[in-house]
Amino acid sequence: MRHDDYVTFKVVRTNGHDLGSIEFRSLGVYHCLSRNLHYGLRIMKTKMLRTRYLDAGQVHDMFDVMREYYEGMRFEVFEKDLSSSDTVILLLSSNGSIQGFSIQNKYEMTVNGERRIALFSGDTVLRRKYWGNGALATAFGRFLFKMKLRYPLTGVYWFLSSSGYRGYLLMANNFPEYYPRFDQPTPADVSAMMERFYGQKFGSDYRSDLGLTMAYEADPCRVKETVAPIGQLELTNPKIAFFAAQNPEWSKGVELACVARVSLSVPIMYAWKRFKKTTAALGYQWLIRLRLKAE
User: What is the pTM of this model?
Assistant: First the structure.
């Protein structure tokens, strides 16, 4: 099945009766609906704050979430990296417990005499039962929107060093201008900007010839292979296939260096996409309830 084929989504009760089926053009919609129907449309609260305002309990809770999905985690390394970061987006359940987070940093750089704002995403994780609800991406979109409003006349870029295809897809599916990508080469000026940024941040661990960061040798932290494996279905998506080809050792902690240009339209476009997916999920749940009542 290709990534853009129609798929039939069926819901079956425990007594075996088929409650109906419906076809969707996009596997993305299918996955969104299947998660939402299995877990319910889980509502999350998000909170953005400076990392210096985190208390010890919050830091330990963040570390607990992190080690559920990453191997080789060491608390002292995590705490040190966190203390040197700027901002964190916390994802909270309805009772206020931390279910995920994303660390953000802002840098300023000059490229060919022009000032640029570089936003770099560090450790990012979300408990599986909340995957697909869009809370993290929505909060991150608000963060990007505010940054672009703050620097309207300056080029703002999001830098992401990704060891898993899900992070790469977040960029590839929502940013019109991003690199590297399967359908066109990276322009020379973008390559130069990436080499400067990643070279300064990772030093000799950044391989500009490969576009990869190899810091895993010094820091063994890496995504567990069972978290987001790349199978045959995933490889039918050309973006995932490109990620796997560019970063074949992703499971060892090798990261693909990426960049995207931030504009004011990107968060708005993403919010519209989330609205359509959520509306589709709610509509299908409503149809299921009608069928249950009819029986």
Answer: 0.78
